[in-house]
Each structure stands twice: as structure tokens, then as C-alpha cells.
Amino acid sequence: MKIIFHEKYYNSSYAGDPAASEGRIKSIMDVLNKNNENYDFITPETALEEDILRAHTQRYLDSVKRNSNLYEIASLAAGGAILAAEEAYNGNPSFAIIRPPGHHASANSAWGFCYFNNISISLLKLFSENKIKSAFVLDFDLHTGDGNINILSNRDDDFIVNILNPKAYDRFEYLNEVENYMENLENIDIFVASAGFDEGIEDWGHKLYLEDYTKLGELMKKFSNKLCKGRRYGLLEGGYNHSVLGENVHAFCKGLK
Question: Looking at 6, 56, 103, 104, which residue is catalytic?
Fold first, then answer.
């Protein structure tokens, strides 16, 4: 399984929010490095402006560029998302340990610790190259990815994207909701997870256990194998308890790979 990572993602100076906090990315990489026999680490490049502009307006891009430190890491996160999508399209399950997250970034605005919409940028890159015509987004972050919805839903360019933000309060009902939704999917070219881990039992949501994250990864694998030759990837979104974040990510990756 491919893990997309760049040393610059350790940078915590671009913002003062929980997603940028010192040690957050290290807590993930420490666990994945201990299990490196399962992972092939690859380094992304910065996304081009033309890649970002498929999802965002020029005015918004220019507003982010005014902060050079922020723009460097946000465009590198977008580049990591693109690399993950490309690897997935080529048949290699992948997960991108990127930051800032992106699912609250809309075309001309953002909130929730997000700046560029990494999910949209990566999918629209594949779509622009005529590699995909449809996609499924599983957003299991605690907070609904309004940016994903705003950019990818009801498009006028024939790109069809199904998005699920599970709502169930019980962990078993939550997993059933995801599986039932996937059972009814058809004509999907690639699967991607907006992978936030703040629904964890020891994080803000107090709901999902390690085995639940593994199950989510397994469902991504099962139904992507059924529908689109196993093309699947995930991008890091939320998750803020550093003591458990790495294990939660690893649990999901075990199911996804």
C-alpha cells in the first residue's frame, strides 16, 4: 500500500488551529513507520495552480497565496492528494498523510482548519484527464464535508460524484449505514475517503473503535473491487487526540490495503 507523505507536513507554523498542532502528524508517522513492512512511502510534489483552479476561484487562490507559508503547505497537501488519486487509479491503494485538511473548503471560501479542497482537486485532476467520469466519496469525519458537497455535487460538466457523510449515532448502525449505501452504488470509477478520525471513541465524537476504522477500510476495498477494479484511496482530514490518532489511521489503512 502506498503512503503519501512529505517531511514538510510536519510544519506546524502555518496556522494555530488543532489541525496544525505540533506533534499531530508525528503521532501518525510514528505508528506507520513501526509497521513499515506494510507500506511503501512516496513523496508528492506541489500541486500546480491549474490543478487548484479546477476546484477554486482565482480570487480565492490569490487570497491564500498572500500567506506564503500557508500557500506552500496547502498546495503541497493538494499535490499529495493528486498523487494518492493517481496511485489509486493505477491500481495501488493509497493513503495521504497530508495537511491542512480540505473538506470544509469551498470554491471561494473555507473554514474548519481547511484551505484547499484536497478531495475535489484530486478527483477533478483525474476527470480533466478523462480517466474517470464518476466517483464515490466516503466522508467519515465527525463534521460534514460541506466543501466536498459544494464543489462536487450538482455539477454542469457531467462529472457524477456520490457523497456519503454517515449520520448514525450508534457505531454499529453507522457501519450498517455505510455498507447499505455502498450496496446500492453503481457506475463508480473510483472510491475516496475523506478520512477524519475525530469520530473516534477517544476523540471528539466518542463513537468509533479501532476495529470500526478497519471495517470502513474493508468496505472501501470490497466495493471498489466490485465496481472499479479496486481503485481506492484516502486523504487525512480531522482527528485530534494525538495519543490514538496514529493507531486509528493504521487501523483504517489495514482495511483499505
Answer: 104
No. of helices (H) and no. of strands (E), the chain: 9, 7
Supply the pLDDT for residue 38: 85
What CATH number has the domain bearing residue 219? 3.40.800.20
Residue 56 a catalytic site member: no
| Strand partners for 162 | 136
Preceding omega of 100 cis (within 30 degrees of 0): yes
Mean pLDDT, range 218-233, rounded to an integer:
98
User: What is the residue range of 138's domain?
Assistant: 2-256
Residue 255's CB is within 10 A of a number of other CB atoms, namely 18
DSSP string, 8-48: GGG--TT--SGGG-TTHHHHHHHHHHHTGGG-EEE---PPP
Most distant CA pair in the chain: distance in Å? 45
pLDDT tens figures, 100-139: 999 999 999 999 999 999 999 999 999 999 999 999 999 9
Number of domains in the chain: 1
pLDDT of 210 above 90: yes
Whether omega for the bond prior to residue 44 falls within 30 degrees of 0, making it cis, is no
User: Which grid cell sits at 45?
Assistant: 510534489
